[in-house]
Amino acid sequence: MSWARLSFRLQRWEIVFLTAGVALLAGAMLWYASQLMAVVAENPGCDPSAFTSGCEAVARRYDELSDFVTQFTNLTWAAPFGIGLILGVPLVAREIDRGTTQIAWTLSRSRIQWLAGRLVVPTLVVIGLLAALAVTSEILTAALFPQANLSEDFTWYGRRGGLLVARGLVALGVGVLVGAILGRLLPALLAGTVVTGLVFGGLTLGMDRWNEAEALVLPYGRDITGDLSLGERVVLADGEMMTFLEMQRRGVGSFAIAMDGQVYVPPEGSEFEGMESPEEVGELIGQSHVLVIPAERYPEIVAREAAVLGGVAVLFGLGSGVVVHRRRPV
Amino acid sequence: MLATLRLTWRLQRWELAILGLAGVGLAGALVVIAWQMGAIQAATPECWARDSDAPLEASLMATCEGPLGAYEGWRGPGDIASLGVAIAPFALGVVLGVPLVAREIESRTAGITWSLSRSRLRWLALRVLPVVGFVLLVITLVSLSGNVLLTERLDGREPGFGEMIAPWPIAVTRGLVVLGIGLTAGALLGRTLPALLVALGVTGALFIGLAFAFDAWMASEAEPIDVGPDQREASRIFEMGFRDDETNELITMNEYYSAAGNVMTASEPEGMTMIAWQIPAEEHPAWVAREAAVVGGVAVLFGIGSVAVVVRRRPA
Asked: Are residues A287 and A158 in the same domain?
């Protein structure tokens, strides 16, 4: 276990600071969760999310707490990227930066074995810290939405639960790879931040397209609480489906959507007047719809995204192995 | 002088190059976005001569729908670029400030360089001043470009409270204070990455504290002013309330509705005039000066702190 102790010693400051930060954040989240639960428990007759007569003070308190809770979810969203990069980048970069790789790589049986040994502790720390945030964010979300069954609900998707851990592992992989390529700590941290942004931007776009391909097309106005909403579409009378932007590109520049989601265009050569009813003067061309993944598919979608992220993390790990195996130690 | 600049460049060339390129890129993006938004408005002036909340007149709909959509399309990139302007002073300060001393201690070159210098103070000044110049230059470039976009978006109105793009004096002093924090943390800890984390934590804590302190200061000077048609969005509102038209008695909206037990409505209760405890937008420049002075003072304190640490600490 001397390799594990060495690995911890090399990154002890980062591990200590990150652990302290996560403990603070998790503690604050649990405190706010307890406050929200108390507001609900002390006022059983009130719906705290609505300003109803006699419940204004409850709603106001709940509103104040919700504002802070939203800030916490922003932090839990950002935490995987920060923790992954801070632990991943220095893993190889610091050794190259200080010129100690020559000795370390010469003394190891193989560079790959050296890298694997170095990776164990930070990987466990990433998993441990983000698992703690994943659990506390679930507790906080449950406190804010007491009526929701969060095991089948996309509310705050990606800001709670196991996806935080999977994202952290990808960021760790990005950090290790970029650090191994550049071999300088601070520049690698900057470059790693940019690469992480690009990687997750691409992954988000890819997962959105995948989800859209499997989404249900529901008429506008249906209750989609808890579902994963993937945007609006217009289904034309001939069954063709398109976005509003695509409709405008086809030359339908002026249209109106009625309260029931039906889409009308004005008579040729004219425009809708300000307050007139589009149903009376316009021509019906289609119906507005929403693309959704139903709430009951939440566990499956999370597992699928986590698997994709896990695969990407492994790819970055393999890439780091190749770089470490081939690069010069300075 | 040239040798000092060359040494600074060689020691921090990666950070300077990455941040310099990012700064120039951001400034260019801000100017292009502002130029595009301005060009759209200039090409269709009839579409903009109205209250932005009012519905478009039917006769203008066909002409204006495209330009309005195109203008809205530039808003998203504009918001992201504005966020970049807000983050720039913090990123520049922390990334350039931390390694100035920490890297020398970490790579064990501080012992040699401090011995070879006439004094540690002189050594620190020669290391810090070129970086301060660089930070000032990039923040000024980014801030001025940000103001080009802000001016375009405000469409002739004066900037007020609540804008994401901070005025130049505040942006500059923020950059300097974060540079000071990074420098002090790096000199104290003598390790780059831990110092970076500490500097980020201290920066976060300091600016959250300053935000609360300024809020309290402003709230103590806020005055109850009628919310009329001339009420400007750019004012800083702390509390809404009502003035009794007969007695001139003031009551906050929360107190009023708690006492009345009614659900909130958009209209004013009979016999009451809606007021807001606020700092009017006209006082914005004075508050900018106050904030810049306070933040600048904190920057000086951190500068003195870093000098004290470098002069006293062991080089390893």
From this structure: no
**Domain-located, residue A17:** yes
- Residue B231 has φ and ψ, to the nearest 5°, of -55, 125
Q: Answer whether B193 sits within 8 Å of A271, measured CB to CB.
A: no
| Whether residue B262 is found in the same domain as residue B163 | no
> How confident is the model over A149-167, as pLDDT tens digits?
999 999 999 999 999 999 9
Nearest CB to A187 within list B18, B254, B263: B18
Comparing C-alpha atoms, which of A132, A91, A131, A142 is closest to residue A306? A131
How many independent structural domains does chain B possess?
Answer: 2
Q: Domain span at residue A258?
A: 228-293
Q: Tell which of B61, B103, B202, B253 to mutate to test the A interface (max A CBs under 10 Å).
A: B61
Which of B18, B66, B258 faces A253 most closely, judged by CB atoms?
A: B66
Q: State whether A74 and A145 are in the same domain.
A: yes
Angle (CA) A131-A323-A198 rounded to 5° is 55
Q: Is there a single domain that holds both residue B31 and residue B48?
A: yes
- CB contacts under 8 A, A 27-46 vs B, are none
CB-CB: which of A52, A94, A186 is closest to B14? A186
On whether residue B49 sits in a domain, the answer given is yes
Are A309 and A253 members of one domain?
no
User: What pLDDT is attached to residue B176?
Assistant: 97
CA-based nearest distance A297→chain B, Å: 31
Q: Are B172 and B287 members of one domain?
A: yes
Percent residues over pLDDT 90 in chain A: 57
Q: Tell me the nearest-neighbour CA distance from A172 into chain B, angstroms.
A: 15
Q: Are B12 and B131 in contact (CB under 8 A)?
A: yes
The stretch B273-284 carries a mean pLDDT of 90
Which pTM does this prediction carry?
0.82
The answer to whether residue B64 sits within a structural domain is: yes
Per residue in A109-118, pLDDT tens?
899 999 999 9
Chain A residues lying within 8 Å of B107, measured CB to CB: 98
Distance, in Å, from the CA atom of A173 to the CA atom of A119, rounded to the nearest integer, reads 10
Does residue B3 form part of some domain? no
Least confident of B72-81, B96-105, B206-215: B72-81
Say whether A184 and B258 touch across the interface (CB within 8 A): no
Residue B107 is nearest to which of A17, A89, A98, comparing CB atoms?
A98
Q: Are B186 and B241 in contact (CB under 8 A)?
A: no
Shortest alpha-carbon distance between residue B62 and chain A (Å): 7
Q: Which domain holds residue B227?
A: 223-278
Mean pLDDT, residues A179-198? 94
Q: What are the φ/ψ torsions at residue B250 (nearest 5 degrees)?
A: -105, 140
> What is the structure's pLDDT at B57?
60
C-beta atoms of B95 and A190 within 8 A: yes
| pLDDT over threshold 80, residue A77 | yes
